[in-house]
Amino acid sequence: MNLYTTILLEFLLVASSILILFKFRVKLGLAPLYILLGSLQYLQANLGSAFSFNFFADYVIYPGSIILFSAVLFAVLLIYIKEGVASARALIIGIVISNIIMTLMFEITYLQEIIKNASINSYSLFRVDLKYFIGGTTILILDFLLLFILYQYLVSRIKKLHYFAILFITLFSILIFDAIAFNVALFSGTPLFKSSLVSHLVGKSLGALVFSILLYFYVTYFDNETKSTASFIANQNRDIFSIFKYRKRYINLKAEKAEVEKKLVSQIESALKNISDGFVSLDTNWCYTYVNIKAGEILGRSPESLIGKHIWTEFPEGVGLPFYNLYYKAVETQQTQYLQEYYPPFRMWLENRIYPSPEGLTIYFTDITEKKEAESNNQMLLSLIETSDDFVGLASLEGVPIYLNSNGRSLVGLAEKDALPASITEFFPENYHDIIINEHIPSIYKERKWNGEVEFKNFKTGKLIPIEMSGFLIRDKISNEPMVLGIVATNITERKKIEGQIIESEKNLDTIINNIGDPLFVKDEESRLILVNDAFCAIFNLTRSDIIGKTLAENVHPDEQESFLKIDKQVLTTGVENVNEETLTLNGTDKRIISTKKTRFIDDYGHKFLIGVIRDITDRKNAEIELKQSEEKFSKAFESNVIGKAILNKEKTIIEVNDALANIVGFKRENMLGKTAVEIGLFNFDDPKNLENEALLWSEFSEKGYASNIELKYLLNNGKELFILISLQALQLYNEDHVMITVVDITEKKNAEAELEKYRNNLEELVKIRTEEVNFKNAELQRMNKLFVGRELKMKELKNIIKELQSRK
Predict the structure, then answer these.
(1) Helix (H) or strand (E) holding 482
(2) Which residues pair with 729 in a beta bridge?
(3) 543 half-sphere exposure, CB direction, 13 A CA radius
């Protein structure tokens, strides 16, 4: 066995060990591979130089060191490519830590040898060159980091580079860097520097080539997860410095994943509750485990009341019906079932989709009663469409024609048996296809319709037919989801001919200026009108025959004629645009206030023209005057010295108050601004009657927009009572609703009324006493009168008795 055979065996042993352990990483995990790489790195650092051979006499190659070190880089890059940043970073840390631990263990063993032998053995197997170890470990860490950064840069930024070239450049660059850095750090300035550097460069170049070829063939052809080089490279979409950023990104992604999963579960639950289909699930005992809101509506039960209940106990009327049989068939066959059937107990058509599983059944059902009823009317509708004089067609949402009525086929030259084109765009000229796809169809989806004039192509003759078309979406009545595109078109060939004749007969300029809402005019250098629009005629109440060729100064009041033409001459002479407000009186009519903008135009022949635009601002000016007068009146009325007034905004906060109200309620005016009426005591005084009146006040205001003369009692700061008469009036300020409060002090009136009431009550009491006294005297007189009358009667009777006795004698 010669030298080269042993080198080849060493390479095959190391490379195959790495690839076998990596291949079976799913079953074994990455730990065995990590242990192997840590051992290889230690062997390379401490024993790699044990064997060497010379070439070209002066240069020495250490094949063991080259194979072991290149194998470690090869394995680290393989793990980074296939397992990602986390595994690669863990491997780096593991290699460094294991290297440190094993070095310390060898150093301790070496110290034990010294203690035992009482002498230093310079050829001990366990002796470690710490300078060599520290320098090599530092450079190794740099090698790993640069390896990932360079590979990621090449694979993600240089797209046209072959994948083998990426691998070779990466390994070659790092191995060459390691050779240079190692020799500079350890042998710079020594006689060994040149020979050691050349030896490392040659050996590691060969190592880069061999391991690049091995890595390329493995990831391209022998890894089951990689189907092709192209797809593999496309998956290397990492950040160039991901080796430094991975931990933070991993934590963020983990938190984001948890949040997304939480939201997803919530969204699924919300979706099931709110989907338009009924959704229920049954366990193997035919008991409800879930019922959504729509299912509860269809079944006529609350979802909570059905959970845990047996389906055929709750709905025995369904036993034996097609739904019942299909549910059992789904359970027995474990195959999805579908059924549209009328369900007599509910008097509705139901569409059922039944999904079986070992845990039970999941059932989606939809009320399709309206759909079925609509289908019964389809034939009638189809008859109406077929007899329509217009083009009526339907297309799928992707624009594929699915129906065209008879007149539509006739319009575009298609017989009854002819197949419809593959796309609705084929009905139109080729130069119009992009407009249909990019403008009209998106407009139908966005605005739900599109109307306009276009052209159809006749498939037989190739002629273009002008049409007026409406495109719209036909939606499902229940879900409101779009179903198909509808197109209705009318042949407007005759109409277009007539329109063309009309357009040719009209002047383009008249069409333009008459579409302008403001009065427009053109004058020549003599201020004579040569062109006006309809709005100009209307504002002056004149016809074109009354205007054309005149300056209109003839119709203006003599006092205004000079200023009327002065501005025209100024603009025509200087070319400076003029905007001016003018007062005109024409044909004895009321004065009109107008804003006129005049501009000079010079044609190619040097002729000057005056172009003007007029706006009638009479109403605006009058409104400004009225507003100013109204504001003055309001200001005078508001600043009354007797009647208190305040303005409240919609939050009932005082934004303005006059001195009269401040004096009435005993506050300073500046202390009342920004406060509510309650805060200064106008309302909510602790008096039931006051509260009742306040409620009446706002109730009447809410109903009528005003409230008048409600009495309230107010307590001044000094403790005295104040009676006020309060009114509310709606007020518009700055386009917002406000309330004006008007307050009148009626304290003196109320006090006078109270005093008068007091006098009236005293007078009534005095009259009562005097009446009682008179009644007593009258009673006494009546008693005395009766006494006297009785005595007179008795005297009279006595006299009669005496007379009778005398007569008897």
Answers:
(1) strand 482-491
(2) 706, 740
(3) 2
Q: Higher model confidence: residue 109 or residue 315? A: 315
Mean pLDDT in the chain?
A: 78
Please state the φ and ψ torsions of residue 57, each to the nearest 5 degrees: 70, -50
SS3 content of the chain, % helix, strand, coil (to 5): 55, 20, 25
Q: Is domain 372-501 classified as CATH 3.30.450.20? A: yes
Number of Cβ within 10 Å of residue 262's Cβ equals: 10
Q: 275-367 maps to which CATH number?
A: 3.30.450.20
Give residue 261's pLDDT. 62
Residue 552 has pLDDT above 90, yes or no: no
- For residue 302, list its beta bridge partners: none
CATH architecture of the domain with range 632-745? 2-Layer Sandwich (3.30)
Question: According to DSSP H, which parts of 219-321 are helical?
Answer: 229-234, 242-274, 293-299, 303-306, 311-314
- The segment with the largest mean pLDDT, out of 305-309, 614-618, 749-753, 783-787, is 305-309
Q: Where are the beta strands (DSSP E) in 620-751?
A: 644-648, 654-657, 706-715, 721-733, 736-745
Strand partners, 188: none
How far does Cα 117 stand from its chain's mean position? 83
3-state secondary structure of 468: strand
Domains 372-501 and 506-621 share a fold: yes
What is the topology classification, in CATH, of domain 506-621?
Beta-Lactamase (3.30.450)
Cα angle 537, 543, 546 (rounded to 5 degrees) comes to: 115
Q: What does pTM read for this prediction?
A: 0.33
Tokens encoding 194: 């040149």
pLDDT tens-digit readout, 393-442: 888 888 899 888 888 888 888 888 888 998 888 888 988 888 888 888 88
Residue 521 pLDDT > 60, yes or no? yes
SS3 at position 237: coil
Domain residue ranges of the chain, discontinuous segments joined by +: 3-240, 241-265, 275-367, 372-501, 506-621, 632-745
Percent of the chain exceeding pLDDT 70 equals 78
